[in-house]
Design brief:
The chain has helices spanning 33-36, 59-69, 83-88, 90-111, 143-158, 193-203, 222-233, 263-267, 275-291, and strands at 19-23, 41-44, 73-76, 115-120, 162-167, 169-171, 187-188, 190-192, 210-213, 220-221, 257-258. By secondary structure, it is α/β, with parallel strands linked by helices. The chain has one domain: NAD(P)-binding Rossmann-like Domain (Rossmann fold, 3-Layer(aba) Sandwich). Strands 2-1-3-4-5-9 form a six-stranded parallel beta sheet. The protein has a three-stranded mixed beta sheet with strand order 10-7-11. Strands 6-8 form a two-stranded parallel sheet. The longest helix is centred in the middle third of the chain and has 22 residues, at 90-111. Bound molecules: NADP nicotinamide-adenine-dinucleotide phosphate (NAP).
Length: 292
């Protein structure tokens, strides 16, 4: 995949606050946008109630929105993210994740602005013993991964100014968190959604366009994450029984491992904290208040 190092970056030193258009802002990751991008003028959109509507599957709507709102950059979060539903409704998955992304990329191309496309560790096949780096070949095992990879390929083919940023198992969203137990690859790199957006915020002014992994440091199994949550909640009496993923017959196959390492960000001097530290903050600041 091409990386356009040195291409024109957004002028982050300019007096004006850069305008950031966010698609899919009503979801789990988008729920942190206001808190993180305080240095941007935010335009949050989605197809869910409560936000201005922007359906990425409608090419004319997307092109008109980008042309009229004149953002400095687009953060494209909108996606069909239910892995099992994608498996059962592949046309819908490709429509949202591939063609929806194409619509956003074409609008950015017409406006001459950069795009941040959020992708997933789910593009990997799961058979590598070590964590995946950006130079490993993707090999998705399910429709969700295939459709997100198609989005990556479209972005890289259409644009020169892009960041494709792959996240691991996303943690966050408090009551919005509906995916953590749903995606059961055996090994992965937990990614606190707040840290994820903060990493993108650091990447944006670099102008170092290309493909990146952005997960918290380290990897673990779902069981290890569950044990850590129990310890952080101070609930030793809660029994956690490790079971095989074969005990959850789900429509979409899962990779054995989605563990990732942020090699390219590390080379830029951008380092993520460990997933254990991130989980500690998530539990104490977001989960404990929900439980009390
Ligand atoms: N969560 C994870 O573990 C994870 C991990 C790696 C990468 N990612 C990627 O990170 C991004 C954000 O994920 P998330 O967890 O915040 O997902 P999410 O909670 O499902 O949020 C996505 C939002 O996009 C909306 N949307 C769906 N189709 C749309 C359309 N055609 N036009 C505009 N908006 C649309 C969804 O609305 P509906 O709810 O009505 O569909 C939802 O509000 C996605 O690109 C996802 O693939 C997520």
């Amino acid at each position: 995949m091409r990386s356009f190092v040195g291409a024109r970056a957004i002028d982050y030193n300019h007096a004006m606050t850069p305008r950031l258009l966010v698609t899919g802002a009503g979801g789990m990751v988008g729920s942190y946008a206001k808190e993180i991008f305080t240095d941007h003028e935010l335009i949050l959109t989605d197809i869910v109630d409560g936000l201005p509507r922007l359906d990425v599957c409608d090419p004319a709507e997307v092109k008109a929105a980008v042309a009229e709102l004149k953002p400095a950059v687009v953060l494209h979060l909108a996606a069909a993210t239910d892995v099992d539903r994608c498996e059962q409704e592949p046309d819908g998955a490709y429509r949202s994740n591939a063609i929806g992304t194409q619509n956003v990329a074409l609008a950015c191309q017409a406006a001459g602005i950069p795009l941040v496309y959020v992708s997933t560790a789910g593009v990997f096949g799961g058979d590598k013993p070590e964590p995946y780096i950006e130079f490993d070949a993707p090999r998705p095992v399910n429709v969700y991964g295939l459709s997100k990879l198609a989005g990556e390929q479209i972005v890289a083919a259409l644009l020169q100014q892009y960041y494709i940023v792959r996240a691991g198992w996303m943690i966050g969203g408090g009551p919005r968190d509906k995916k953590f137990v749903g995606k059961i690859a055996r090994l992965g790199s937990p990614t606190y959604a707040r840290d994820f957006l903060a990493g993108i915020q650091r990447l944006l002014p670099t102008g170092q366009y290309g493909l990146y992994h952005l997960a918290n440091k380290g990897c673990g199994t779902r069981y290890e994450v569950a044990l850590k949550v129990r310890a952080l909640l101070g609930r030793p009496e809660v029994e956690i029984v490790p079971v095989s993923s074969a005990q959850f017959p789900l429509p979409a196959p899962r990779a054995r491992s989605e563990a990732m390492r942020n090699l390219k960000l590390e080379l830029l001097g951008i380092h993520a904290r460990t997933w254990e530290d991130a989980l500690q903050e998530y539990v104490s600041t977001e989960l404990v208040p929900l439980l009390t």
